[in-house]
Design goal:
Elements: H1 4-13, E1 23-27, H2 60-68, H3 72-86, H4 94-126, E2 129-134, E3 137-142, E4 151-155, E5 163-169, E6 175-180, H5 181-184, E7 186-193, H6 204-208, E8 212-217, E9 228-232, E10 240-243, E11 251-252, E12 256-263, H7 282-312, H8 316-319, H9 328-332, H10 335-350, H11 356-374, E13 389-390, E14 404-407, E15 414-425, E16 428-430, E17 435-436, E18 439-440, H12 456-471, E19 476-478, E20 482-483, E21 486-487, E22 490-491, E23 494-495, E24 498-500, H13 504-515, E25 519-524, E26 527-531, E27 537-546, E28 554-560, E29 566-572, H14 574-577, E30 581-583, H15 586-598, E31 602-611, H16 613-627, H17 633-644, E32 648-660, H18 664-673, E33 677-681, H19 686-695, E34 704-708, H20 710-715, H21 718-735, E35 745-750, H22 751-758, H23 768-779, E36 783-787, H24 791-802, E37 810-814, H25 820-825, E38 828-832, H26 839-842, E39 846-848, H27 853-890, H28 904-914, H29 916-925, H30 949-974, H31 988-1010, H32 1016-1038, H33 1052-1057, H34 1060-1087, H35 1091-1101
Parallel strand pairs: 14-33, 14-37, 30-32, 33-36, 34-35, 35-36, 37-38, 38-39
Antiparallel strand pairs: 1-8, 2-3, 2-4, 4-12, 5-12, 6-7, 6-11, 8-9, 9-10, 13-39, 15-16, 15-32, 17-18, 19-24, 20-21, 22-23, 25-26, 26-27, 27-28, 28-29, 29-31, 31-32
Helix pairs in contact: 2-4, 3-4, 3-10, 4-11, 4-28, 7-10, 7-27, 11-27, 11-29, 15-19, 16-17, 18-27, 21-23, 27-29, 27-30, 27-31, 29-32, 30-31, 30-34, 31-32, 31-34
Length: 1102
């Protein structure tokens, strides 16, 4: 028997990890290759349906229950409920089952509603109409029915249904402009090129005759990377291999284009979007630790009562009194089994000390509280038309615990709105419409912007410089009247052209050249046209584009002039250009670059190289081999770029200004006053970034700057530099106790030195020594600037601070794709919805329109939410101690018989009805300082201050004290006393009801005393909860309910209220219970007031 067929079927339908290959073959139009070509192997791919939902109609109940009972608290109460069902316990299973059912139901409804919204969004996308080319005709179908290999037609302003390869465009040069708003939010236009061998196919019939396959890599998580090639089969010819250019996704802004589906939605790049696991942070860790303590208390109570019960029953009279003889079955059971059963019964009796409803209340508080951030009108930006967004509601309180803020510079602190300021050619400065070579020029004519009388050599370099900036870019000229349905560039009723690009720097440079007399006109038929200062059109054939990347920090183009000369133009950061320059006025240009950087301008250097025909052919061969490689294409391209981009002649440099955002300096100053350390992580050069830091008040004029840069480590060893800086800051710290004036330090470190700090050194067993010294230095600096940072290094900095011994809470904020790594690494990630796109906002926990909104996000919302969640957690444990400790004391007076003190209805409804709404509302709208941004007051709650063990012990002791007052106060009032007018004594259930009444009123009034911000909602909920308890007790005990087998509470509550001493006892016990807390607050506010309390007093005085 041939098992190969069976093996192929198994590999086809049950493909696992072992059958995974690095590449895939896509058959255009599902056409089989010619017989002489490679074997046709049909492949199975996922369909094109979007599935972002978590549940289905069939698996919702089991899957949701499984996830909920994975929580320790829910699983614990499930066990308690099962114990009540199995053994004879003192309380009804309803007392545990109903609260558990309530918690599970509320959580399931919340998660089900959220998943229903996801299902609804999925359907709207899956049913989106798409035009597909089949057998030479266009067929309308749904997006979900597309398959890999289908050819689709996309028209202007349509959203792409999946990842596509551009085969043909309505534009003659085979280009299209694409925005990736639906993927990463970037509204800037990106240019994509059709495959050269297919761009001639303009109609559906022509494309139907195409016989080709595409070999490409498997789907990758990188949104901006693609490796593939197309093989076109022609009759009696070998297949032609051609490079597949970067494929396109999202919105097309061309008339029409023909594309082939490469990856379905479930495999496309957006499906691989990064997410970070939610780790337990200090408030959550504190809550879990407190829960463990209370669990230990519960077990201790059960053990103590079990031991004391058998000690009490050691006497025969106590063991089996005359009124309660045991059955034969009970006598025959082993004492260990009886003891274990009693232990479980006591666990059931005291289990209410664990607040099961606390978790659902915390979830509701976080979920509902996130809407207050979204609804905040102060965080709405009129210019962008957007407000704050909350992607993760589980971190609201962590916003108030942030200790380190890591921020990007460009687009975060600055506007990312580039304006061309000047350029420098061989040391001569050109400023548009202002000064040229020291001469004030008129702005009437752009031709006057350039000195028309330089020498021959200088004139040649000047022309090359301006041509280089007009040619070395990826800017496109848009001549249509509309872009994104917005009319632009219309003057006197005639449409005019304007520039679009994915980089605002490039547009600023090209527009700057236009102001200086050199205008970039268009890219037509692979030829770039520019209008020089003599109004002559120059044409250059664009041969190759060496795209910019963050590692090389430069881009280049190879062009051919009309005279047949091959030119390589390159522009990039000074650190990436100067080492590759062999001629030119380097020192003059370097001096101007450093001066511009000190002024806070963004600088780029421009260089060129003339290529001989042989050098050009060699460069073409290197680029072709690298671009056709399916494996490690990035490494091959990097090597090719490195060999080509060398032996430059330096032409000059440019300076572009990126203005500081509105109120960025005020925001940084407020964060520093609140005790937060602010670090700026940027890829810019040191001088530019330092100027921005001074402008944003990160550094002050009195700040002593400590430099840990490559320049200094070249003069001294890294070891010596680190120890010198360490001695400097430690000496100042030792003197700070003796002097009022304390020196303010600021640290500047660059990417190269950071790599050396983090890299294991041969001088020691590892890099831990250098890391600790660096951390010690940075701890003693008020601000840190990290310049020349790669995206991965930004994440390494955040990770380094997170892992330090203090384990501080970190926040990272940025606006671009290069900031995603540090946003995901930080505890809290915030994305800015800026001009570099929305990828940072998409991967963040929160998104805000501008950097200035961070001030209110942290100092108001974060501060308030931390105080609210801290009060919620402590209050839940407090009120449950008050609730269950009288039950523990009662066992000493009932012979440890497991007799409950409270009625079943009270046990069931205490946490889910009588005391739940006031604390939930408090945790949503409480403001201990009304409408004031508490900058200095944040330090009162820093380091998780309100959830530390001393505060927890205070709340627990207060609960124990109140519980003793409730129980013994009622006990002594009952002692030898007749309460009713007819001399009738109160019974057991009346005693328990009296204790429970005092309990409910005390814990509710305690919350009322802690409330500072009163609204009508507070009054309604607090007094309404007390009224609801009274009305419920009257109805529960005043009506004979037919569904109850026995009604032990009948007329109990009315009988208690009919007694004057009972009223007096309730008022007296409530007053005594609340008095110590009131006295403590008065004394602390008078003798040791916090900054918050002083602000409250000042607010009241004004």
């Amino acid at each position: 028997m041939d098992f190969s067929v069976l093996r192929n079927l198994i590999s086809r339908y049950c493909a696992g990890e072992e059958y995974w290959v690095d590449s895939r073959t896509v058959y255009i139009g599902h056409k089989e290759p010619p017989p002489a070509a490679e074997a046709y192997i049909p492949q199975r791919y996922p369909d094109n349906r979007i599935v972002s939902s978590k549940y289905t109609l069939w698996n919702f109940i089991p899957k949701n229950l499984f996830e909920q009972f994975r929580r320790i608290a829910n699983f614990y109460f499930l066990l308690i409920f099962l114990v009540q069902l199995i053994i004879d316990t003192p309380t009804s299973p309803v007392t545990s089952g109903l609260p558990l059912f309530f918690v599970i139901t509320v959580t399931a409804i919340k998660q089900g509603y959220e998943d229903w919204l996801r299902h609804k969004a999925d359907c709207s996308i899956n049913e989106c109409p798409v035009d597909m080319v089949q057998q030479g005709t266009v067929v309308r179908t749904q997006s979900s029915k597309l398959r890999v290999g289908d050819v689709v037609m996309v028209r202007e302003d349509e959203t792409f249904p999946c990842d596509l390869i551009l085969l043909s465009s309505s534009r003659g040069d085979g280009t299209c402009y694409v925005t990736t708003t639906s993927l990463d939010g970037e509204s800037s236009h990106k240019t994509y090129y059709a495959v050269p061998d297919t761009m001639a196919f303009k109609t559906e019939q022509e494309l139907d005759s195409l016989h080709a396959t595409i070999e490409c890599e498997q789907p990758q998580p990188d949104l901006y990377k693609f490796v593939g090639r197309i093989n076109i089969y022609k009759e009696r010819e070998d297949p032609i291999a051609s490079l597949c250019h970067g494929y396109c996704v999202c919105v097309c802004v061309c008339d029409a284009l023909l594309t082939i589906i490469l990856h379905p939605v479930l495999e496309n790049e957006s499906a691989f979007s990064s997410s970070k696991p939610l780790l337990p942070l200090p408030p959550s860790r504190s809550m879990n630790a407190f829960l463990i303590v209370y669990l230990c208390i519960l077990i201790s109570k059960a053990v103590i009562n079990t031991v004391l019960k058998y000690a009490w029953q050691w006497s025969a009279d106590h063991d089996e009194p005359w009124y309660n003889h045991r059955t034969e079955i009970d006598r025959e059971r082993h004492v260990v089994i009886r003891a274990f059963t009693d232990f479980l019964a006591f666990m059931v009796l005291f289990n209410y000390i664990i607040p099961v409803s606390m978790y659902v209340t915390v979830e509701m508080q976080k979920f509902l509280g996130s809407y207050f951030i979204v609804w905040d009108k102060d965080m709405y930006d009129e210019e962008l038309g957007v407000g704050a967004q909350v992607n993760t509601s589980d971190l609201n309180e962590e916003l108030g615990q942030v200790e380190y803020v890591f921020t990007d510079k460009t687009g975060t602190l600055t506007e990312n709105n580039m304006e061309f300021i000047e350029c420098c050619v061989d040391g001569h400065v050109y400023i548009p419409h202002a000064i040229c070579n020291g001469q004030i020029l008129s702005a009437a004519s752009s031709i006057d912007m350039i000195d028309s009388s330089p020498g021959g050599y200088r004139r040649e370099h000047e022309d090359l410089f301006f041509r280089a900036l007009c040619l070395c870019h990826t800017v496109q000229v848009k001549e249509e009247e509309t872009v994104d349905s917005i009319k632009r560039g219309i003057h006197l009723g005639k449409p005019t052209s304007f520039y679009i690009s994915s980089s605002p720097d490039e547009v600023a440079l090209v527009e700057g050249m236009k102001r200086l007399g050199y205008t970039y006109l268009r890219l037509k038929d692979s030829h770039m046209e520019i209008l020089n200062k003599d109004d002559e059109i120059e044409r250059f054939e664009l041969l190759h584009v060496l795209n910019f990347d963050s590692v090389r920090r430069r881009m280049s183009v190879i062009v051919k002039s009309s005279s047949g000369e091959y030119l390589l133009f390159c522009k990039g950061a000074d650190t990436s250009i100067f080492p590759r320059v062999v001629s030119g006025k380097v020192e003059q240009v370097r001096a101007r670059v450093e001066q511009n950087a000190v002024e806070g301008l963004r600088t780029l250097c421009v260089a060129y190289r003339s290529l001989s025909p042989a050098e050009y052919e060699e460069a073409c061969h290197q680029l072709s081999d690298a671009k056709l490689a399916l494996k490690d294409r990035e490494q091959w391209l990097a090597q090719a770029y490195d060999l080509i981009e060398r032996d430059f002649t330096l032409l000059g440099a440019t300076a572009v200004e990126d203005r500081l955002q509105e109120k960025a300096a005020d925001t940084i100053e407020s964060l520093q006053k609140a005790g937060m350390k602010v670090w700026v992580l940027t890829g810019d050069k040191m001088e530019t970034a330092a100027a921005t830091c001074y402008a944003s008040k990160l550094f002050r004029r009195s700040t002593q700057i400590l430099e840990l840069t490559k320049k200094r480590t070249e003069e001294q060893s890294l070891h010596d530099v680190l120890f010198d800086l360490s001695r400097t800051v430690l000496r100042q710290r030792s003197l700070s106790g003796l002097s009022v004036e304390c020196q303010d330090y600021g640290l500047i470190i660059d990417g190269a030195t950071l790599s050396a700090v983090l890299k294991p050194s041969p001088e020691s067993s590892g890099s831990g020594n250098y890391r600790e010294i660096f951390l010690e230095i940075s701890r003693n600096c008020s601000a840190v600037l990290c310049c020349r940072m790669a995206p991965l290094q930004k994440a390494q900095i955040v990770k380094l601070i997170k892992a330090s011994k203090e384990h501080p809470i970190t926040l990272a904020i940025g606006d671009g794709a290069n900031d995603v790594s540090m946003i995901l690494e930080a505890h809290v990630g915030i994305g800015i919805m800026g001009k570099e796109g929305r990828q940072a906002a998409r991967n963040s926990d929160y998104a805000i329109p501008k950097f200035k909104h961070l001030k209110k996000m942290l100092l108001v919302h974060g501060h308030f939410y931390y105080i609210r969640i801290a009060e919620l957690v402590q209050y839940f444990f407090y009120k449950n101690v008050c609730f269950i400790f009288p039950q523990f004391l009662y066992q000493f007076f009932c012979g440890f018989s497991q007799q409950p003190l409270y009625d079943t209805a009270y046990l069931t409804l205490y946490n889910i009805s009588f005391t739940s709404l006031p604390i939930l509302l408090y945790s949503l709208i409480e403001k201990h300082i009304n409408n004031i941004i508490p900058t200095q007051k944040k330090r009162d709650v820093a380091k998780n201050a309100l959830l530390r063990w001393p505060v927890f012990l205070y709340w627990t002791c207060l609960g124990l004290f109140n519980a003793c007052i409730f129980f013994f106060g009622a006990y002594f009032l009952f002692d030898n006393t007749t309460f009713t007018s007819n001399g009738q004594m109160f019974g057991n259930w009346t005693f328990g009801t009296l204790v429970f009444t005092v309990l409910v009123f005390t814990v509710t009034l305690k919350l009322a005393l802690d409330t500072h911000h009163w609204t009508w909602i507070n009054h309604f909920v607090i007094w309404g909860s007390l009224l609801f308890y009274v009305i419920f007790s009257l109805l529960w005990g005043g009506i004979i309910w037919p569904f109850l087998n026995y009604q032990r509470m009948y007329y109990v509550f009315m009988q208690m209220l009919s007694s004057g001493p009972a009223w007096l006892g309730i008022i007296l016990l409530i007053t005594i219970s609340l008095l110590p807390d009131v006295v403590k607050k008065v004394l602390c506010r008078t003798l040791w007031p916090t900054a918050t309390e002083r602000a409250q007093v000042g607010r009241t005085a004004t």
